[in-house]
């Protein structure tokens, strides 16, 4: 069961970071401490159904999205969207723009080669 708790916590963290929210921001929205958010995100504390509903609402996602592919994940492993998000947010704005440009070019080349 711990694996599921960690996977859901990782999803909460991913969505929170994607919105640019700190743990304190999310905690304030939920009326809890940032330490509790840390415990949820690390999987140390299991998230009750009612709290999960509140978290999903605060993040603007469905509860189901927090469970998406949970059976196939073991939490934070290299190559997960969370790792990519961490790496991306650690870049300067200029590097982020370069990366987006590169990703667009790669996507266009991939689409072109698939249709050829």
From TrEMBL:
Residues 12-66 form the HTH cro/C1-type domain. One of its GO terms (molecular function) is DNA-binding transcription factor activity. Pfam families: HTH_3 (PF01381). Coiled coil: none annotated. It comes from the Bacteria. InterPro entries: Cro/C1-type_HTH, Lambda_DNA-bd_dom_sf, TransReg_Diox_bact_type. Keywords: DNA-binding. CDD domains: HTH_XRE. One of its GO terms (cellular component) is cytosol. This is Helix-turn-helix transcriptional regulator.
